[in-house]
Specification:
Layout: E1 8-23, E2 29-45, E3 49-53, H1 60-67, E4 75-80, E5 83-84, H2 90-99, E6 100-103, H3 117-122, H4 124-127, H5 137-147, H6 164-176, E7 182-186, H7 194-211, E8 214-219, H8 222-226, E9 231-236, E10 239-245, H9 246-251, H10 256-263, H11 306-310
Parallel strand pairs: 3-8, 3-9, 6-7, 7-8
Antiparallel strand pairs: 1-2, 1-4, 4-5, 9-10
Bound molecules: adenosine-5'-diphosphate (ADP), iron/sulfur cluster and magnesium ion (MG).
Magnesium ion is lined by residues 60-61, 186.
GO biological process, one term: peptide transport
Family: Belongs to the ABC transporter superfamily.
GO molecular function, one term: ATP hydrolysis activity
């Protein structure tokens, strides 16, 4: 982990993305909306890794696409170094987009099989030739291969000649090509074998220090981001349930959803499990087109009460923990936030 500063490089404010649901072929009528991202706010500090964790379909990739300007928000703001990117001139936006790059989930489908590795890694230079003039590109690409631990002599090979882990190294090299400040990593190791995941995460950790990068690191499982994250945000059905430092989230979670997710994290040491409770997360995630009233987690929450159906909990530091220095004092969107000693299954 790099030493993060307390300067936010990105500020996400009340971000909303609703995908319209339409019916009819000739006269398309909007009959509803998929509330993929519904009022999400967080900061990404310079040099830090913010992990974003949640089950499939909770809106993680949509957040990533909004930050990359690949999707337009329904409402809300994304501030880059304090400036609203929606209000930038096209030239200024192009510079911002250069500084925010992405590494995708699936290294098998995200690399064009008909392009050589050299062309894949060098592709961003076509859009931003100012970073590497034509004559310098091959040298730059060879350097990038070396930086991610691949043999520069592989420059003319094709993606199918590499393993999954090597392909993700190629994806990372492409993400680094333009010397970005921020890399949005959308489940970069989820498609890889467990044995390879740690190698790729270690590489990303090293690159973060070397190039002073800020990472937004998306995963569907808390155990994957633990090693690399300075802070973690837990998402459920388009909203943040809880956000805090790694210690706050892993050792002092106060939201029932985070506690349930942690309960499913394998723990190497089986000692002392007996006194703690194991939480089994029952049922499926409801549809984001028709989320439950009040707290969205209430249909799966073992603590739900009448109030939970009526009143949506705000993401805020629970008052009872406001002046507490135990680690529980961090934002949690639950009316009944409290610590719980869970079995790490
Ligand atoms: N372009 C789209 N049109 C309609 N619905 C979408 C679109 N992209 C994503 N969704 C829906 O938004 C929700 C969140 O998706 P996504 O952000 O991909 O979740 P995650 O990455 O956490 O699995 C899902 O219900 C998904 O089906
Ligand atoms: S607000 Fe209610 S339903 Fe939601 S997480 Fe808290 S206790 Fe569970
Ligand atoms: Mg996704």
């Amino acid at each position: 982990m790099a030493e993060p500063t307390r300067e936010p490089i990105l500020q996400v404010r009340n971000l909303v993305k609703h995908f319209p649901l339409t019916q009819g072929v000739l006269f398309r009528r909007q009959i509803g909306a998929v509330k993929a991202v519904d009022d999400v706010s967080f900061d990404l500090y310079q040099g830090e890794t913010l992990g974003i964790v949640g089950e499939s379909g909770c809106g993680k990739s949509t957040v990533a696409k909004l930050l990359m300007s690949l999707e337009k928000p329904t409402s809300g703001q994304i501030l880059y170094k304090g400036e609203d990117i929606a209000k930038l001139s096209s030239r200024a936006l192009k510079a911002v987009r250069r500084n925010i790059q992405m590494v995708f989930q699936d290294p098998y489908t995200s690399l064009n099989p008909r392009m050589t590795v050299g062309d894949i890694i060098g592709e961003p230079f076509e859009i931003h030739p100012e970073v590497a003039p034509k004559g310098d590109r091959e040298k730059k690409v060879r350097e990038l291969l070396d930086v991610v631990g691949l043999n520069p002599e592989y420059i003319n090979r094709y993606p199918h000649q590499f393993s999954g882990g090597q392909r993700q190294r190629i994806g990372i090299a492409r993400g680094l090509a333009l010397n970005p400040e921020i890399i949005i990593c959308d489940e970069p190791v989820s498609a890889l074998d467990v044995s390879v995941q740690a190698q790729v995460i270690n590489l990303m950790d090293r690159l973060q220090n070397e190039f002073d990068l800020s990472y937004l690191f998306i995963a569907h499982d808390l155990s994957i981001v633990r090693h690399i994250s300075d802070r973690v945000g837990v998402m459920y059905l388009g909203k943040l349930a809880e956000i805090g430092s790694d210690t706050e989230i892993y050792d002092h979670p106060t939201h029932p959803y985070t506690q349930a997710l942690l309960s499913a994290v394998p723990q190497p040491d089986p000692a002392g499990r007996d006194s703690r409770e194991r939480i089994i997360l029952a049922g499926d995630v409801p549809s984001p087109a028709n989320p439950p009233s009040g707290c969205r987690f209430r249909t799966r929450c073992w603590k739900a009460e009448a109030r939970c159906a009526e009143e949506a909990p705000l993401l805020a530091i629970p008052t009872r923990f406001a002046s507490d220095d135990s680690g529980a004092s961090h934002p949690s969107a639950c009316h009944f936030a409290e610590e719980k000693d869970v079995v790490h299954a």
